């Protein structure tokens, strides 16, 4: 295929005005100063303001210049071409949605616990490696992936990533993508559930507050179903008020005689999680999932806005080193392995996350009003998520490093007492006294904060420091800590429920090929069976993670990271193939270079996890060491205190190692298949066929960016005049009536 | 004063759009415009069908990590 012609939208840029040259020079200076301070400070504590300046300055420049270049020159978005939302408008899933609303929807769908967990774990190597990867990764890879997938899916009536892989690469690559999505889902759910189990273990306050979300959600569900259907805002406000009350009352429960009933060991929490996960996924959506989704979206958006304000107002000081020794020696206690490749798989969400490709294809493209808006929605949402990740880095790095390592190292290494934990932290080169550890736990109303791995407690701790500095002082610290735990637990539980449903759906769809009745999603035994299989899958890894003597996060998080980046490789391979097939070989580097980087990271990580001789890194080396110890009749070895624990490690390491190898093979299959298709398209451009929906002229007039340009304002006014008066039609001039949904022409008014 | 009112009404509009509370209004407008003779579901029926559709295909509206 020849390269598509340049569209009107993409005509050569006009010269920048002197005013905008001055403004963008200033923005560049702010960003450069931030990076300069980060790079040059060695050994002294610096303010988080520099980190914010570096990140925000870079985002602004990237959005203004790079994303515009991709939209206009590479993708050639066309404002005259109707999107599927306009052509297939059915008022339900296909409907043109105001760009600002869709930005909110898309952001709420992509940002969850991921950007809060990965950066916290990666902070063991200092704040600099994580920050550089989050900012550079999002600009050149993550946001590019989200935007390009969104664009191509919009051109294909909102087809999913799996369907696009099958259509454009072939059945082989498509099948590999499908298997990858399923396995990743299982690992993702297990790791997220593990984060929650670790945060709630031995915490009556936390367990009580989270348990209360279930009756609150049930109440909201009944309210929406029976009392006042569809009144989402009012019921969400009631729900959030009840939620805040549940957090406050958690303290009373923790200080009362009921505390014992809500103090649960990790293994009991696993059982509760599995039972809950199964029930939640077979109950009707309206009862639990839908209302909790509203709650978690409210909490998510609200807390992120509060956190951004808190960071800017408090401007805390970073206490962590910029780069610790663990970056080079790979002996970090939180996760093993050196900076390359492990920082790049530990931080997925916030920099480059394959999972976003599932949201960017499928749901969002069916609602895009104008092709030109993919830049704001795809690239812009991802930049915002990246900013959330930067705030997570700040939360982790304002803690005393000694405290950070006491919270995040595996329990087996820290030992049973505060003294042993303090000794261990000293042994790895940081300092914290047992008294400081006891005081830290007391401040946030927990029995202990030692070995609360998984990122959520660290993040909550940092957030409580920031918030209590702004509002309420030290007395509010415990409230803010549990507020943050609640906020993470809420959307992790929603993801567990929704993810189990998606996994079940995929499983039923696949098994339905073998035995027809299984495909019927209303046939109860089939639903129960498939749910049990999915819950059993993540439940197994959750159980293993909780009981692993080496620390579940330490062992499982790399698997999750590799899996997520594998999905990114699939998405970027689809994008690169599409660019080449549509005659844009000269622009293939836009997604091709991120793809090569991602493949290098993921394959190196899998290689090391499978073949490394270092038992801390390589799963099979680990297996050998413990097997040998078992064979020699040893009663304990390393962090395994008895023979059972040693056998557990042997089994776990084998399973994890095999999974890693499978991931690597899947990546290679997708890459090989994509390369085959690309080479064919380059050799014989005439043969390449792309499956794009036909061109239909758009009747909607709507701005591309957040604020309409002068030219767009004129277009909107002209369209409104044709439509017979009314307001100027610009979306930002009084949207109070909000009833004109998907009407063409004056869509800016909707 | 009018500035405050305008700002408040814009925020209210945004919140209602974001939560999906306007889905029913959008549906009614859609039916009225494209199928003027078709009967319009009540809000109760419409909202029921909307959540039940999510149960039938959970991939709609899935959220990421």
From TrEMBL, chain A:
Key words, A-Z: Cell membrane, Membrane, Transmembrane, Transmembrane helix, Transport
Pfam assignment, any one: CstA
Location relative to the cell: Cell membrane
Membrane topology summary: Multi-pass membrane protein
InterPro entries per UniProt: CstA, CstA_N
CstA N-terminal domain span: 48-605
Region Disordered, annotated ranges: 723-750
Gly residues composition bias: residue spans: 723-741
Transport is among the record's keywords: yes
Gene Ontology CC annotation, any one: plasma membrane
Protein family (similarity comment): Belongs to the peptide transporter carbon starvation (CstA) (TC 2.A.114) family.
PANTHER family xref list: INNER MEMBRANE PEPTIDE TRANSPORTER (PTHR30252), PYRUVATE_PROTON SYMPORTER BTST (PTHR30252:SF3)
Annotated protein name in UniProt: Carbon starvation protein
TrEMBL record, chain B:
InterPro entries in the record: Sel_put (IPR007423)
Taxonomic lineage of the native organism: Bacteria, Bacillati, Actinomycetota, Actinomycetes, Kitasatosporales
Composition skew (Basic and acidic residues), residue ranges: 36-56
Protein name according to UniProt: Uncharacterized short protein YbdD, DUF466 family
Residue ranges of the region described as Disordered: 36-65
Top-rank lineage group of the source organism: Bacteria
Source organism of the structure: Streptomyces indicus
């Amino acid at each position: 295929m020849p390269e598509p012609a340049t569209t009107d939208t993409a005509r050569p840029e006009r010269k920048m005005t002197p005013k905008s040259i001055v403004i963008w020079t200033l923005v560049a200076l702010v960003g450069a100063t931030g990076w300069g301070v980060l790079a040059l400070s060695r050994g002294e504590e610096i303010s988080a303001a520099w980190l914010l300046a570096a990140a925000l300055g870079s985002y602004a420049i990237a959005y203004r210049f790079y994303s515009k270049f991709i939209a206009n020159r590479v993708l050639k978005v066309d404002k005259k071409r109707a999107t599927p939302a306009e052509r297939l408008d059915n008022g339900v899933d296909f409907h043109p949605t105001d760009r600002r609303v869709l930005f909110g929807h898309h952001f709420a769908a992509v940002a969850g616990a991921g950007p809060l967990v990965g950066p916290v774990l990666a902070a063991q190597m200092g704040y600099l490696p994580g920050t550089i990867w989050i900012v550079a990764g999002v600009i050149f890879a993550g946001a590019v992936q989200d935007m390009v997938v969104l664009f191509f899916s919009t051109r294909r009536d909102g087809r999913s990533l799996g369907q696009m892989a099958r259509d454009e690469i072939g059945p082989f690559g498509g099948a590999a993508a499908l298997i990858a999505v399923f396995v990743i889902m299982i690992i993702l759910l297990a790791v997220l559930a593990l984060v929650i189990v670790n945060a709630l273990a031995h915490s009556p306050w936390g367990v009580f507050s989270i348990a209360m979300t279930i009756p609150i959600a049930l109440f909201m569900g009944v309210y929406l179903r029976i009392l006042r259907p569809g009144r989402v805002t009012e019921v969400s406000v009631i729900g959030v008020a009840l939620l805040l009350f549940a957090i406050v009352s958690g303290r009373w429960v923790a200080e009362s005689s009921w505390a014992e009933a809500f103090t649960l060991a990790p293994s009991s929490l696993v059982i509760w999680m599995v039972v809950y996960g199964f029930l939640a996924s077979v109950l009707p959506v309206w009862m639990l999932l839908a209302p909790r989704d509203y709650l978690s979206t409210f909490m998510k958006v609200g807390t992120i806005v509060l956190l951004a304000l808190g960071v800017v107002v408090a401007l805390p000081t970073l206490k962590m080193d910029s780069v610790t020794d663990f970056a080079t020696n790979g002996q970090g206690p939180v996760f093993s392995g050196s900076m390359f490749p492990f920082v790049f798989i530990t931080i997925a969400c916030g920099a480059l996350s394959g999972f976003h490709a599932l949201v960017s294809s499928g749901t969002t493209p069916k609602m895009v009003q104008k092709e030109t808006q993919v830049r704001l929605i795809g690239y812009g949402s991802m930049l915002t998520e990246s900013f959330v990740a930067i705030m997570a880095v700040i939360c982790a790095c304002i803690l005393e490093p000694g405290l950070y390592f006491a919270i995040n190292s595996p329990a087996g290494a820290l030992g049973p007492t505060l003294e042993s934990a303090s000794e261990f932290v000293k042994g790895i080169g940081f300092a914290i006294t047992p008294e400081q550890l006891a005081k830290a736990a007391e401040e946030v109303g927990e029995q202990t904060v030692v070995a609360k791995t998984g990122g959520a407690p660290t993040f909550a701790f940092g957030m409580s420091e920031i918030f209590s500095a702004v509002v309420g002082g030290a007395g509010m610290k415990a409230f803010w800590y549990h507020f943050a735990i609640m906020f993470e637990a809420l959307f992790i539980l929603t993801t567990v429920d929704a993810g189990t449903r998606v996994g079940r759906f995929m499983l039923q769809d696949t098994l339905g090929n073998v035995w027809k009745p299984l495909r019927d999603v209303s046939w109860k035994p089939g639903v129960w069976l498939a749910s049990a299989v999915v819950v059993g899958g993540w439940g197994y890894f959750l159980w293993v993670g909780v009981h692993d003597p080496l620390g579940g996060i330490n062992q499982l998080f790399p698997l999750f990271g590799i899996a997520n980046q594998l999905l990114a490789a699939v998405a970027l391979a689809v994008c690169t193939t599409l660019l080449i097939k549509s005659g844009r070989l000269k622009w293939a580097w836009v997604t091709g270079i991120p793809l090569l980087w991602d493949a290098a990271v993921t394959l190196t990580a899998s290689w090391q996890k499978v073949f490394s001789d270092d038992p801390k890194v390589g799963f099979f080396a680990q297996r050998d060491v413990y097997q040998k110890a078992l064979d020699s009749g040893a009663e304990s070895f390393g962090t395994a205190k008895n023979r059972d624990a040693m056998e557990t490690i042997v089994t776990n390491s084998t399973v994890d190692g095999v999974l890693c190898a499978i991931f690597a093979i899947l990546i290679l299959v997708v890459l090989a298949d994509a390369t085959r298709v690309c080479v064919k398209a380059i050799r014989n451009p005439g043969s390449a066929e792309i499956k794009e929906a036909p061109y239909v002229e758009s009747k909607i007039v709507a701005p591309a960016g957040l604020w309409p340009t002068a030219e767009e304002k004129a277009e909107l006014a002209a369209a409104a005049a044709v439509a017979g008066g009314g307001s100027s039609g610009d979306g930002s001039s009084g949207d109070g009536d909000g009833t004109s949904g998907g009407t063409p022409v004056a869509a800016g008014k909707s | 004063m009018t500035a405050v009112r305008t700002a408040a009404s814009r925020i209210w509009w945004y919140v209602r759009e974001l939560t999906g509370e306007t889905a029913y209004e959008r549906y009614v407008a859609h039916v009225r415009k494209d199928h003027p003779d078709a009967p319009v579901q009540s809000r109760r029926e419409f909202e029921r069908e909307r959540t039940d559709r999510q149960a039938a295909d959970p991939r709609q509206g899935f959220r990421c990590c």
